[in-house]
Each structure stands twice: as structure tokens, then as C-alpha cells.
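Standup, Tuesday
Yesterday: got the pipeline producing C-alpha cells again.
Today: sanity-check two examples.
Blockers: none.

Example 1:
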Amino acid sequence: MEQSVEQKRIKDKFIAARGYWRPWTDTILNLHPAFLERYADYAGQPARKGPLSPRMVELVYVALDASSAHMYGPGLTTHLKGALNAGATPFDVLDVLHLVAMQGLEAVYAGTAILAEELGAQKPDNSQSNGVPIGDEFKAAHPVAASLIEDLARFDAEYAQVVMDFIEFGGTGKGLSDNERLLVQIALNACFTAFNPEAVRLHIRAALNKGIPASEILQVIQLGAHLSVHGTALGAISLNEIIESAEGQGHESQ
């Protein structure tokens, strides 16, 4: 189908704002171009207008697309390329993927807290736990995990130790700064795909205590919202397949 001047304008605008073009965008451009233009504005605004560098924006997108709560391959590939083109290193990416692997711990922390509440006056079996030593360096680099691991160790010191080792030694030590790690963790927990209010609160508190500006925190929160368009993409692809199938059957019946 030949595109109008207006459709070409919107396509160029979309690519400039989002950095990609997909079959689903073609479908929506043909059927509802106004949606595509407004989506480009909506999705592009927090990436362009906030204080974070293009490198950091792309790394947040890498985390969100790679997260086990989303796992969107096309977006991950796009933003991996974007991150590297914006100056990120493979070590930055591996640190992001380490944080993605750590995301499941948030549920362990929350579940253990519920267990402690339900036990009430009952004390856990002290034979299982004498606590684990948490050094000042670990506390400074991982303030949220440090406070939660102390509670976890009351129930299972051995597990708490391997968790702490994974957090401390799973990163490369050559990529993200401690502040950048906190911002990625806020993004992962604030995204609608795995929204965890208590984890968001704890990581925001730690970020503010470290002097991270509220504007940077707000930007990583905003970046996750428009990932919901991946559901739109799925629907648009299915819609296009049905339309093409119906048109094909119409031609056959003529």
C-alpha cells in the first residue's frame, strides 16, 4: 500500500523518536496513524527530556526488556544496540543483566517478611542461624539488600550468605556505578510488569540517601510505562494476519 505524505511524516517522526520500525507499526500506520504519532510523543518524551544520559536510558530499557517479567526479544536487541552505540560497555550490560537475575530476590525478601509477621511471637529455630557478617563496603554498595539480608539470615544463614555472595560477586566491578545500579533496580521494581511497591520505596529511599536527584528517579520510573505497547504490537500483528486472510479468501471467492 502506497503511503501518503502524512503517513511518511509520521513514520519518519516515529523512527526519530523510537529508533526502530516494525511490522506492527506498519499496520497501525495504515489503519490509525494518529495513534502512532501520539505514541511516539508519549514514549519518546521521558527518554529525551529527563536528566539521564542516552547511555543510561538505553541500559534501563535493556533491563526492562530482559526482565523475566517481560522478556521482549525485539526490544532487547534494539536497546542493546542503542546502549552500545551510546557508549555503554559490555561490562555495563552484564551488570544490568546481573540486576535482572537478582530481581527474583525481591519476592524472597517480601515472602520472608510475611513469614516473620505470621510467626508473631514465635521465634525461628536458632540452630539454623547465627546471622551473617555484613561488611561496611557491602552495606554502602547494596544498602537495600544489606538491610533485608539481615532479616533473611535470622531464618537461614547459609542461604543468606550465598545470596550475599551472588549480589557482591555477580557484578563485573567494571561497569555500572553504585548509583546507576540503584536506578536500574528502581526501574525494574517500578515497572508495571513486576510492580513491587515496597521494593520501590526501599530503593528510592536508598537513592535519595545517596544524593541521587529526584528527577533521575522519576525518569527511570517513567521509562517503564510504555512497555505495555508490546501488547498493542501483538494485537496489531494478529489483526493484520486476520485482515490479510479475509482479503485472500475474498479474492479466492471471486
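Example 2:
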Amino acid sequence: MDLGIAGKWALVCGASRGLGYGCAEALVREGVNTVIVARGAEALEAALATLRSVAPEDTRVLAVAADITTAEGREAAFSCEQGPGRDFDIVVTNAGGPPPGDFREWDEAAWEAAVHANMLTPIALIKATVDGMAERGFGRIVNITSSAVKAPIANLGLSNGARSGLTGFVAGLSRSKIAAAGVTINNLLPGAFDTERLRKITKNAAEQAGKAPEELLQARTRQIPAGRFGHAAEFGAICAFLCSQHAGYMTGQNVLADGGAYPGTF
């Protein structure tokens, strides 16, 4: 299927590895000019090289090593040489989730950091780009959030709270006048994907339980109807579809990709 977005410009955050990289690769393969952003310069350069190797001819891939959760980092992305400035057609927001733990141990600074990274940063990126999208008559914003928005995870209270706040904000904005201007905003909710973050959280849980990480990974796999963890490439394919011309009638949605783990009807 031709997604109809070749030649568009995309900004993909947290794109040096994991789910962000999966989204960037899917868009690049569709011929979307893409600016990837991440904090780690070395991993980012490796991702850039790989993306350029799979990019169709004349598709541009640029990289900005910056912390997108800061105003300076966002300005660096918008000021990227040879990039489109703020005139992105597609924005994929993504920031590392806050650490797991017991809410009794989180002080106000921990909550502020979580809300800043996982709620206020996506809102800042939307604010900087959405009006330009509306003026041009096309825009796609996809926020990578978490399955915890649908089914909260006990030891991820910081993520549950911050991401739920973003979800509520998007629910209102996506249904405003920008919808009639051809701009959609959706949230993409990953369940258990085989990423560095999954293994880090599992390691933390294993240490607390006095078990081997592989034991916990196998136990979690058995709870997923698909019988496995997800892959970044298939997550990226869903993201690319949400960014496509074909998804213009989908907005304000929370698209869950979790291998069937969520047991609810709605």
C-alpha cells in the first residue's frame, strides 16, 4: 500500500533505538524526509547511517543530538540545517518513560520530571507545529505513550499519571477545528515490546523479587495471547499508517498494540 506521504517532512523523537527508531525507519522507507532526535550522539549516528542505507533515492535523513525535553533541544531540532524549520508535516513524540517504583518514595521533583517529559514536552512540540500543519492542510501527530493509559501498571505510577494527562489533553485538542483542517492527533500505546526499557524494568523487578530476569520475561510472555513480545518494526508500521493519507479519518484515538494482552472489551 502506498501511504501517500513520500516527500513529506517528519520529526521523530527518541529515534536512536527501540520504538522511536522503528517509527523512523518505517517513515523513511516510505520516502518521508525525516529528522531524528535523541540524546546519545553515538547511538544516533549509528541509527542515521542505517536509515540512510534503507532510504529511497532523494529521501533525506538528518540527525540532531539533543534532549527534546528541553526548550534548547526543541529549538535545535527546529533549527536543523537543511531541515524544514517548524514546518513538519509529521511529528512523532517520544520520550523515555520515568522509572518504576513505589509512589511513597517519589518526591515532588520526581513527579515534575515525569510530567515534564511525558506530558508537557509532547504538548510543546504540538504547539510549535500544529498551526502550520493546519495552514498547509495536512498534519499527522502521533504520541508514543503506553498501554498503561488503558490498564495502569502498579509500579509505573509516574508513567500512569503523566501519560494519562497527555491523553486527556489530546482528546480535546484533536477534536477542535484542526480536525477539519486535515490535522490528526493520535496516541500509539505500546504493550510489551522487546526493547531496552522493557529489559531494564524487568531487571529491576527481578532484583526486588530475587529472581532471574529471564524467568520474569518468560512468565510475562505467557500472559500475552500472541505468545511473544512485539518488535519495533511492526510498531513502526502502525505508526506509519497513522501518519498516512489513509488515516485522515482517525483522530483522537488511543491505538493499542499489545499482542492482545489488554483483556477489556473497550
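Quick observation on example 2: The two ends are 29 Å apart (CA to CA). The CA atoms of residues 18 and 249 lie 28 Å apart.
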